[in-house]
Each structure stands twice: as C-alpha cells, then as structure tokens.
Design brief:
The complex is a heterodimer of chains A (431) and B (135).
Chain A lengths: L1 H20 L7 H25 L14 H29 L5 H8 L6 H17 L11 H8 L2 H15 L7 H28 E13 L2 E8 L12 E7 L11 E4 L9 E6 L3 H5 L8 E8 L10 E7 L4 H13 L4 E8 L8 H10 L3 E7 H4 L4 H7 L7 E6 L1 H14 L6 E5 L4
Helix pairs in contact in A: 1-2, 2-3, 2-7, 2-8, 3-4, 3-5, 5-7, 7-8
Chain B lengths: L1 H24 L22 H5 L8 E4 L2 E4 L11 H4 L5 E2 L1 H6 L8 H7 L3 E4 L14
C-alpha cells in the first residue's frame, strides 16, 4: 500500500514536470534535451527526498509498506532512481547546449565559481556518488560500518541539492517547485530528526543480557531481561535493531544491527539467536551476561494479522529464527495448527534448534518438522515438497532464508500453483 | 539494479571526460556565417523605453553595445542562474556581457551566438548611455 502510493507520487511528479518542461513545444533536439534535463532534476530530487523521508524507521510505520525489509527495498530503489536521474540531469543540459559548441557545454558544466548554485549542485551530486557507492557495491561488497557512516553524507547532499534546486526552481508553474521541495524537505527533516534525536531518547528500550546460550560454536541465543521501565511489545517473528554495550567486545560496541526475535511475545524475556556472519555478530558470541543492550523496534510483518489455516514454512539456515519464535509462541498459546515446516540446511550438524522444534512438534498437534539436507538431496525441489507436504497447493507459504533459497522456493511454489499473494518472504540481506 | 546504477555512474564520467577532452583539444574556429538576417518588418531601431517593457525572464530584451537583443528563448538555456540574469532584462546590459560579474568577458563564441537574437540597433539618441561602464 505505502509502496504503491510512493511510486504513484513519483509517477505523478514525473508526468507534471515533463509536461511543464515541455510546455513550450520543443523546436529542436536541443530544447527537447533541455526540457528532459530539467524534468530529470525534479523527479530525481523528489525521489532523493522521498528516500530520505523513508529512512526514519519508526516502529509500526513499516507495516504500511509490508514490513521494514520491503520499506528498505523501496528506499533503495528510490535512491537508485534518484542517482541515475540526477547523473543524467547535468549531462542532458550540457548536451542541449552543445549545439552552440562543445565549449558552451563545458562552460555550462563548469561555470565560474561566482555561480555557486551550480557548484552546490555539483557537490551534492559528488556526495551522492560517495554515499551511494557502497549501497550499489561500486567497489565490491561494502563494510557495514563504513557503509552506515558514509550514508550520513546523505544529509549534506540533500541540503546542497535543495539549495541548488531552490535557486533554479522555475520549471513548474506557480512556484509549485518550491512547494514540492518545502513539503518533501519537511518530511525528510522529520525523518532524520526522529532517527537521530527522538528514536535515541524514546525509541530505544533498555535491556540486560541475562543468559548467553551457546547453541553451536558459531551461534548463540541471547536471553534479554528488561532493564528499564518499558518492555518491547511485538508479534512472533518480528525483528529489532539491537546495540550491545559491553566494553570487552572486540567489535561492534554500541553499533546497531538487525536481529530476529526468536522468543514468544508471551515470555517475560526477549530471545535473539545470533549467528556469526560478520565482525559484530562474531564478537557478540562472547558478550558477557549482565551487559547492557538497547533494543529498537519491533519491525517487519512476516506473519499477517489474520492467520491462514494451512501453512507451509520454508526456512534456510539461520532463517529458522522467526519460525522458532512463532512455533514457541503457538506452543505457549496451546493452539491447534496445520503447519509443515521444511527446514533446509547443509547437514545434520547445522540444523540448529532442530531438537527443540521436534520437541514442539511432539507436543503441538498439526505441527510437522521436515528437515531437508542439501548434502543428501541437493537443492530443494518440487518432488520433495509434494512428497512431504500434504495439500501443498492449499497452503499459504512463508519463506525465510538466504536470497538464493528464497528465490528458489518462490519459484517452486509458484510452479506448484500457489498464488503470489499467498507466498510471504522475509530476507536478511538489507543491501 | 546494482549493475544498472554502476553502468550509469561510469557512463556519466565517461561523457563528462569526453566533453572536457573534446573541448580542450578542438578550439572552435571562429566564423562569421551565423549572423541573422534582419527581419523585413522590424522597426529600424528601438528605444530604451521599449526595451524596458521586456524585463522578465520569460520576456527578456537586453541592450548590448548599442544593439537590442531578444534573449527570451535563450535565457532558459543560459548556464548562469536566473538571479544573475533577471536584473539585466529590459535594460542596458553591456556590463553583464563584458564582465560576467567578475570582470571576465564572454567567449567569442558567446558573442557570435548573441547575434542570433539580434532585433536591431538602439535609437541613435540613446546609444552610448550605458556604454563603457564595465569596459
């Protein structure tokens, strides 16, 4: 819903600015390029500001966008579109004046410094290239911390871009440019203010590490008890951003990372299963009980409010965590269910929590756990699903795993005749 | 999508570099074949009062070295921002043309381009009133 509205707005701005830029019928290629150069600027900046406005990460707000992962995707796409359009903008304008000579084109791109409006635009564009380089892996897979740090350059970039646009805004009729920039700038300032001021004061809940359970040599489950007055209210399978404050950690002190909750909302404590996938998550394997952490959330809406009667869960590796939380919750509520969980892992040794899931299956009627071992069966296929999951096509499917498995499972289920709307996926990959 | 954005990023710098290199290597020869032919129905000359009626960015006449130009079509494509250009519309603008605000003259090509927008001379009696300011 939210995503749809965002793209509808982008389409609207595109149509209006194209019409306005082409208001005087272009007499030749030069004036057409000029018009396109202005339109790309308006749409590009609008997308940049929308992306900024979506970066707030207000808990609950993401539900309008089908969960935070989807919201991030929209944010990511807006950023991509904005960079592409804003790169095209100076080129189109330069090309439009190149009929008067290459020197005219170059003079337009690199005017005297007295014309600071142009240079402000240039600086904004250069900053965009810098802070978006990791997001689009220009120079290889980025380091999470450097990426987050560089992304803060978005602030100055947006301000410089607005200064540039404010001075030139004359394409849309009746100062509509300025109103557009005012409204979108207000939204993005609000978003940034929430993110960096209010969310730190009121959005982050204080918890303390009560136990650290070593599930395997590269996987711990943290048990967190409230250390402040407020507790997190959440649904099973949602995720949070957690920042640990243990001085002994070798990496990631005070750094927030997204983790799925594996506890039932009925429990007094929060549980978070963390596999060592990076520097910070490796360091956290050794966090000491008693350490302070902050929790911000909850985010995501993997499981819909109205629960389908027959379900198929497909988990891949550490993607088991939302299902673990959900299964624990259903058991705690003593619900009768019809759920088949296909748990895809490399081999038995890596089937974390399998024993607990089997124990839950024994106590909870209608809950089946079906492990799928890659080393024995190869990639998941339709035959395996048909053999092990009765009434496959009648089920709503929930998939959580690495992107490869998500894509494969999706394809198999669509092939088996399950409608796209009944296939729900949750991805860990945030870039 | 990563590939697309990266491709555009590279294409952008390739284009900018090409423009800059072509410009550096090929100084444009100056020719005189771009002068416009005076319109037959145009008046022989224009007064400052007439010019002053065209003082907006949408309808922008300027007097430069005793000649009146209708730059309305060109203003949207001029590299300088509107705030720089607007004050010169509807008046004597030789200073702006000669100094660009920081005492550097416009290029020969720019002067030649200007001829495309020529309307006609300023009336004799008013000529020279604004000349020499920045020269």
């Amino acid at each position: 819903m939210g995503n749809f509205l965002i793209w509808l707005f982008v389409a609207l701005v595109s149509a209006v600015s194209l019409l306005a830029a082409l208001a005087h019928a272009p007499e030749n290629a030069a004036s057409l390029l000029n018009a396109l150069g202005r339109a790309t600027a308006i749409v590009g900046l609008a997308m940049l500001l929308l992306a900024a406005a979506l970066s707030a990460r207000v808990p609950g707000f993401d539900r309008w966008f089908g969960g935070l992962t989807r919201l991030w995707k929209t944010h990511h796409r807006l950023g991509a579109g904005s960079l592409v359009l804003l790169l095209a903008h100076p080129l189109l304008l330069a090309l439009s004046s190149s009929g008067e000579g290459v020197d005219a084109a170059v003079a337009l791109l690199f005017p005297p410094f007295a014309e600071w409006e142009i240079w402000s635009g240039w600086l904004a564009l250069l900053l965009m290239m810098v802070f978006l380089a990791p997001s689009f892996a220009f120079f290889g897979h980025p380091d999470y911390r450097r990426w987050k740090l560089l992304h803060r350059l978005a602030g100055p970039a947006v301000i410089l871009a607005l200064v540039h646009a404010w001075q030139y805004g004359r394409t849309l009729p009746a100062d509509a440019d300025k109103w557009l920039w005012l409204v979108l700038a207000a939204l993005s300032v609000g978003a940034v203010a929430w993110r960096f001021v209010f969310s730190r004061r009121i959005g982050r809940l204080r918890y303390r590490v009560a136990h650290v359970i070593a599930v395997a040599n590269n996987l711990v489950e943290l048990v967190l008890e409230p250390a402040g007055r407020r507790r997190l209210k959440y649904d099973a399978g949602q995720f949070v951003y957690m920042a640990p404050f243990d001085r002994e950690l070798s990496a990631g002190y005070g750094e927030e990372h997204p983790y799925t909750l594996s506890s039932s909302p009925d429990e007094d404590v929060l549980r978070i299963a963390i596999k060592d996938l990076g520097d910070a998550s490796r360091a956290i394997q050794t966090i000491r009980p008693g350490s302070r952490v902050t929790i911000e959330g909850p985010y995501g809406r993997f499981f819909p409010d109205r629960e389908p009667a027959k379900q198929l869960w497909i988990a891949g590796g550490i993607g088991i965590t939302p299902f673990l939380g959900r299964a624990r919750h259903l058991l705690a509520r003593n619900r009768s269910v019809d759920i088949h969980l296909v748990y895809c892992v490399q081999d038995e040794a890596r089937a974390r929590f399998l024993d607990e899931l089997r124990a839950i299956a024994e106590r909870m009627e209608g809950f089946e756990v079906i492990p799928h071992f890659f080393y024995r069966k190869g990639p998941l296929d339709e035959d395996f699903l048909n053999d092990h999951v009765p009434g496959l096509v009648e089920r709503d499917a929930f998939i959580c795993g690495p992107p490869g498995l998500n894509a494969l499972a999706r394809r198999l289920l669509i092939g088996a005749g399950i409608g796209r709307k009944r296939i729900h996926t949750e991805e860990f990959e945030l870039l | 999508m990563k590939k697309l954005v990266y491709t555009v990023f590279i294409a952008f710098w390739a284009s900018i570099t090409t423009l800059v290199i072509v410009n550096a290597l090929a100084p444009a020869p100056i020719t005189d074949d771009e002068r416009t032919v005076a319109r037959p129905d145009a008046p022989a000359s224009y007064s400052l009062a007439e010019v002053a009626q065209h003082d907006t960015l949408e309808d922008c006449w300027m007097v430069i070295e005793g000649v009146v130009y209708d730059l309305s079509d060109y203003v949207p494509r001029h590299p300088a921002p509107p705030r720089v250009l607007e004050p010169w519309c509807g008046r004597e603008a030789t200073e702006g043309m000669r100094t660009k605000g920081d005492s550097s003259d416009h290029s020969a090509r720019a002067w030649r381009m200007l001829e495309r927008y020529r309307l006609g001379p300023l009336v004799e009696a008013e000529r020279g009133s604004g000349r020499g300011k920045g020269a």
